[in-house]
Amino acid sequence: MKPIPCSTSALLPLLVRLLLVLLPLCAIVQAQDFTYTTNADGITICRYTGPGGAATIPNRIGGLRVTSIGDRAFLQSTNLTALVVPASVTSIGDGAFWGCGSLARISLPSGVISIGGGAFHGCANLTGVTLPKSVTSIGFSAFSGCGSLTRIRIPNSMTSIPDHAFEHCTSLVSVTMPRGVLSIGNSAFNGCESLTRIEIPNHLTTIGDWAFQGCLNLASVTMPAGVTSIGAGAFEGCLNLKSATIPDGVSAIADITFHACTSLTSLSVPRNVTNIGVWAFCGCTSLTNVTIPASVTSIGESAFAYCSSLARVSFEGAAPGLGSEVFSYSDKLTIYYSPGTSGWGPTFAGRPTALDPKSPVLRQPRDRPPNR
Question: 234 near 254, Cβ under 8 Å?
Fold first, then answer.
């Protein structure tokens, strides 16, 4: 008998192993209103094929426990109104309920550990969801666009709020976060226009870019002492924000952080801040008084432009480097410098004005708005 060539005999075991791996993934079976596949732990629901209305995922199929809801399993099941998930399920995949616009109620069991990215994105009629204590992670944009969701309590097992997690949840009134949360991701609560209250935990260190942008009804924010980073545009357009405490550990106020916070009346810049970014407080029309510590070395373009009620800015040290039109259209403003300091004042159209450390210096507005 002619022997099999070496290269072919070496390849056969590899092909067998590959087939053994692929076969379970391809074995999608229909049962009741679901297609499913088996995995090492049990059954994964692959696709809902039912008529809609109220549905129940069975606890077992073919004698095996249902342990997970797969990626996009209920994608755009627009007639689904309610769903009961069995206690055996521990994971919900990416986009599992994406676009289920009629889904109003869902029961998540106590054993769920992970909820994938975009899992409930666009579930516009979902009025309430309880995140089990067992949940350790929710994915990017997990509940974004859930316009009827009113309250959310983040379980103690979570340490971060991911990017876009609750973006455009326009009916969300309050959020409760546990002590262990260390970071709030980019745009996590962007556009939550009904949000009036948020409990920020003491261990938080990072607030991402645009995290609370457009939270129109958020009246006050107290950031804990451990916060060291506040992202660009974090509170932009929070029209009812009257007070915000910036922790001492923050070293820079990023671009557009409080832009158009029209109800913000007073501001204390921490003594560790070295930079105030572009448009940081532009359009804060109720802001009347600002003290800028000696640690600040630069202030970006139009940082305090259009602050029409701003009457006094006090520099505690030498004037820092200033971007163009920093105070334009703040026509009530008087700027004070500490005695004995020296440097250059605000730059308007490239023309710096020498400081007079013994007397206040009045700054007139420019005759044209800055370009954003």
Answer: yes
Tell me which residue of 281, 286, 287, 321 sits closest to 303, measured CA to CA. Answer: 281
What percent of the chain is predicted at pLDDT more than 90? 67
Examine the pLDDT at 8 and tell me if it is beyond 60.
Answer: no
Q: Which residues contact 128 (CB under 8 A, 6 or more apart)?
A: 105, 149, 150, 151
Q: Higher confidence at residue 335 or residue 364?
A: 335
How confident is the model over 251-284, as pLDDT tens digits? 999 999 999 999 999 888 999 999 999 999 999 9
- Contacts of residue 277, defined as CB under 8 A and 6 or more positions apart, other chains included, come to 232, 252, 253, 254, 255, 256, 257, 300, 303
**So what's the pLDDT on residue 39?**
84
Torsion sign over Cα 334, 335, 338, 342? negative
By residue count, the chain amounts to 372
144 to 16, 120, 229, 277: CA distances (angstroms) = 43, 7, 24, 29
Task: Tokens for 311, please give them.
Answer: 């009457």
| Cβ atoms 241, 218 nearer than 8 A | yes
Which residue matches tokens 């971007």?
Answer: 323
pTM, rounded to two decimals: 0.83
Strands (E), 50-185: 53-56, 60-61, 64-69, 80-84, 91-92, 105-107, 114-115, 137-138, 151-153, 160-161, 174-176, 183-184
Q: How many CA atoms lie within 13 A of 42 on its CB side?
A: 19
b/e sequence 182-220, b meaning 16+ C-beta within 10 Å? ebbbbbbbbbbbbbeebebbebbebbbbbbbbbbbebee
Contact 201, 225 (CB under 8 A): no
Residue 94 makes CB contacts below 8 A (sequence gap 6+) with 71, 72, 116, 117, 118, 119, 139
Q: Quick one: residue 163, left, alpha or beta (phi over 0 = left, psi -120 to 50 = alpha)?
A: beta
State yes or no: pLDDT of 353 exceeds 60.
no
Determine the straight-line distance between the first and last CA of the chain, rounded to whole angstroms.
82
